[in-house]
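ESCALATION

Customer reports they have been waiting on this structure for their group meeting. Please prioritize. Original submission:
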Amino acid sequence: MATKKIKLKLKVGDIVRVMRGRSKGKEGKIIFIDTEKQRAIVEGANIVKKHEKPNAKNPQGGIVEKEAPIHISNLMILVDGKPSRIGRRLNPETDKLERYAKKTNETLK
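Update from on-call: job pushed to the front of the queue and completed.
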């Protein structure tokens, strides 16, 4: 059974705050989004330790700390330093959908 691709309101490069989980309260930029699993990797949040074998990039090997994916339902975009929900509306001038912050009603890039 194929998984359904869902249109997400968050994009790579958005500054978000983690609202749930062990990294609650941390803020960072979205590095990667997996649309099928609805998960995002946020810079500096949800740090885990991975055991790596020696390779060309890391000849010594050992334990490496890296970011793990977080479900997008646990993230909120920051607008002027405050978390806000995101909506989509039709721009009357360009007839294209645009994202906007529901708290401040301002258009997001």
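Sent to customer with the following note: The beta strands are 15-18, 27-34, 39-42, 47-52, 62-67, 70-71, 75-79, 82-84, 86-90, 97-101.
Escalation resolved.
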